[in-house]
Amino acid sequence: MPARIAHRSAATALGRPTFAAFSLAALLIACAPCTPRPPGNPAATSADSAAAPARILTRLYFGTDSPQGPVADRDFEAFLDTCVTVRFPAGLTRFRADGQWTGADGKLVKEKSWVVEIIRAGSAVDSAKIEAIVAAYKFRFEQEAVLRVEAMPTIRF
Questions:
Q1: Count of other CB atoms within 10 angstroms of residue 76
Q2: In the beta sheet, which residues pair with residue 149?
Q3: pLDDT band at residue 6, thresholds of 50, 70 and 90?
Q4: Which domains does the chain have, with CATH numbers?
């Protein structure tokens, strides 16, 4: 059996391609035109997207339980307007969530939350803006923590 495998490899190397080699070549040719192009620029290549600046998806989880009672929707709206939107005016996404976590005292906390997602530049300046948002929320609503999750997404429009 090993002699037969060696014979096939030798035959392909000597210029007599096998059926598998023809099948692979046909598949590659058939799929070549299927490469997606960015809309609006049919000549754009993947090298163009490699030159684009890195983007970060930042997701912030804001708990709404505070020592003074739940953070009211209007108070969270005001926080978004005065603290988040002014730093990231290009846009954001927000949605409600039900979360739970263990506080520093070891007790399980279940609370309503707001989740805010921002796609931003991967710069130190934008990272500092996120840190300022987190610090402001913790101070304003007497929160122990704001969860910050970040990832480098693949962005397509």
A1: 19
A2: 59
A3: very low
A4: 2-34 (no CATH), 55-151 (3.30.70.120)
